[in-house]
Amino acid sequence: MKKSIGFRLNGQPTTLDTEEDRTLLWVLRTDLGLTGTKCGCGIGACGSCTVVVDGTAVRSCQTTLMEVAGKEVTTIEGLARGDELHPLQQAFVDHGGLQCGFCTPGMIMNAYGLLLEDPRPSREKVVDAMEGNLCRCSAYKRILEAIESVASSNGGRS
Ligand code: FES
Ligand code: FES
Prior knowledge:
The protein is α+β, with helices and mostly antiparallel strands. The chain folds into two domains: about 1-80, Beta-grasp domain (Ubiquitin-like (UB roll)); about 85-155, DNA polymerase, domain 1 (Orthogonal Bundle). Helices cover about 35% and strands about 15% of the residues. It is built from five helices and five strands. A five-stranded mixed sheet has the order 2-1-5-3-4, with helices on one face. One FE2/S2 (inorganic) cluster binds near residues 44, 47, 48, 49 and 59. One FE2/S2 (inorganic) cluster binds near residues 102 and 135.
C-alpha cells in the first residue's frame, strides 16, 4: 500500500508517495535519479550502497524507506559544494583511491560517516570501519591513504 513518506535528502525536504517497504537504494536510484549510490550485491555484503542517515553510515540496500522517515539522508551527491569536492572526494582523486570507481561512492560515504563520529581515527579504527567495504579492483592501500590524509589534516567537514 502506498504511503506518503518524508525525509531530508542532501539538505532538501523530500516526500514520496510509495510503498514504505521499498529499499532506500532503489528509491534513490530509480525514483530520485541519484545513481551515485551503487548496487553491488543487494544483500548487505559489499558496502557499495552506503549512505549516511542521521550521521551514521548505513547500507541502503538493507534500509527501507520507512526507516528513514523524518531523518536526514546524505548521499555521495550531497558532499560536494558546487564545484568544490569534499575533502574526502579530493583525497581519493589525489591518492588514486579508485580504479573502476564502482565501490568509490560507498567507500567515501562510509569514511564520511566514520569521520563524523571520530574526526581523527587511528589507523586501526579506519581499517576496522572500512573492512566491510569491498573493492574488486583492490585499491585498498590507496583508499586507506586517502582517508588517513583527511583524518590527519582536519577530519573533513561535516
Ligand atoms: S549493495 Fe548494499 S551492501 Fe552490497
Ligand atoms: S575501484 Fe573498482 S571496485 Fe573499487
